Amino acid sequence: MKKAAVFLDRDGTINEQMGYINHLSRFKIIPGAAEAIRILNDLGYLTIVVSNQSGVARGYYPLDLVHEVHLLLKHVLKEESGAHVDAVLFCPHHPRGVVPDFAVDCRCRKPRTGLIEQACRTFDIDLPHSLMIGDMCSDMEFAKRTGIKGIMVKTGYGLGEIEYVLPRRQAKPIHIACDLLDAVRWIVHGEKAHSHRSAP
Ligand SMILES: [Mg+2]
């Protein structure tokens, strides 16, 4: 059976925006993010992280570090709130990278849609009921290109993106939330309203 997914940007949405996360010490979860993901787990959404990690192509940190960060992310989610993510997908590429294996003009760097296509090969996803939550306008463009709804958060680059970039962009969020937990509470509210409407 198809399941709706909530796609989650990583840096600036789940964990604090610290520039490149080039060391485990730079991974700091945003308050409430673990609780938010547990609520999505409880609601039955697939939770799938989709992240651009061009630092790999740029030679700033190795691929192994990205995997270590994701192990830490999963550990923190579990410890803090008993939350889990169903998949963590990322793009290590950049066309102007210096590491030959990753210096490519790929299809998976957001806002290109390769990461969603990867997710759809693994999971039977109900895209019309799926959402993307992120702190950048490129996350909203990614949502638009894949036909899902976008929610923008004010954490990370969010405030500046919302004020200075979003007005010029075509891809608009359906909602702007303070942070991930606020975004998820807004989704919960919508679900309740919907179940109220459809009640006999
Ligand atoms: Mg981000």
Number of helices: 6
Query: Could you tell me the mean pLDDT?
Result: 96
Helix content: 25-40%
**What is the rounded distance between the termini?**
24 Å
Q: Give the name of the CATH superfamily.
A: HAD superfamily/HAD-like
CATH architecture: 3-Layer(aba) Sandwich
Strand arrangement within the widest β-sheet reads 3-2-1-4-5-6
Order of helices and strands: EHEHEHEHEHEH
What overall form do the CA principal axes indicate? globular
| Bound ligands, each once | magnesium ion
Could you give the count of β-strands?
Answer: 6
Q: How many domains?
A: 1
* Category by helix and strand content: alpha/beta
Task: Characterize the structure shown.
There is one protein chain. By secondary structure, the chain is of the alpha/beta class. The protein has one domain (5-198): HAD superfamily/HAD-like (Rossmann fold). It is 38% helix and 14% strand. It is built from 6 helices and 6 strands. A 6-stranded parallel sheet has the order 3-2-1-4-5-6, with helices on both faces. Strand 2 (46-52), helix 2 and strand 3 form a beta-alpha-beta unit. Helix 1 crosses helix 2 (63-81) and helix 1 runs parallel beside helix 6 (180-198). The protein starts with a strand and ends with a helix. Magnesium ion binds at residues 9, 11-13, 134-136, 156.
Explain the layout of strands and helices.
Blueprint: E1 5-8, H1 33-43, E2 46-52, H2 63-81, E3 87-91, H3 114-122, E4 131-134, H4 137-146, E5 149-153, H5 158-165, E6 175-177, H6 180-198
Parallel strand pairs: 1-2, 1-4, 2-3, 4-5, 5-6
Bound molecules: magnesium ion.
Magnesium ion binds near residues 11, 13 and 135.
